[in-house]
Amino acid sequence: MQLDQPLTEKEFDELDKFLLSDRSSDDAMTMDTLHGYLTAIAIGPETIMPAEWLVKVWGEDASAAPKWKNAKEEEKIVNLIMRFMNEVLVTFEVAPKEFEPLFCEHEHNGDAILDAEAWCWGFWEGMELRPGSWQPIWESDLAPLMRPIYLLGADEIEEAELKEVDDPAKAHKLAQQIEANLPAIHKFWVPLRKAAVQTVKRDEPKVGRNDDCPCGSGKKYKKCCGADAGAAE
């Protein structure tokens, strides 16, 4: 199966069950949390390689990695996660206004209520991979668009802010705002993200000169960002 193929319903359920199984740690992300996490990585200020973000899916550190039956199972599950990510990437590239966050839904007083807390927690985890890089949007006119994600996803909020999330109906309205706000958040980062991927970061793992360039250009490192680095030295 090609990585550009969206998950079938059966594959979605398979990944969901694995994340909830005993072979994944108690800290492993659920599907809604994973979707929020991948969304932040997909639309955020910097390109982050799977080798870095994938380990966080299973928990806080490398020791939380699943108990794989064999290499084939690991390859299959990782492939499903990568395709799940590509669904997010492709939707924002082709039709950002049609993107639908994977929120939970439950009944409250006879009404269907959206619960975006787990999704927002995942988004916040994605932001925490590059916390300083997200600062420009918080300092921009779009900062209010980020507030619902902060209220539902941050580890801690101010005591005075608790009244904004203290019942399901309020949380439902915040979830609706998040879905409406995401295209604009994505649009904010598009020009900045393109510029950022041209920068060679010294804190990233060393890249061999004949390896594919981590910026995603498809060129060898020595003929892309590596050439720029060599010229600067």
Automatic annotation (TrEMBL):
InterPro entries documented for this protein: SEC_C_motif (IPR004027), YgfB-like (IPR011978), YgfB-like_sf (IPR036255)
Gene3D superfamilies, per the entry: 3.10.450.50
PANTHER family named in the record: ADENYLATE CYCLASE-ASSOCIATED CAP C-TERMINAL DOMAIN-CONTAINING PROTEIN, UPF0225 PROTEIN SCO1677
Protein name: UPF0149 family protein
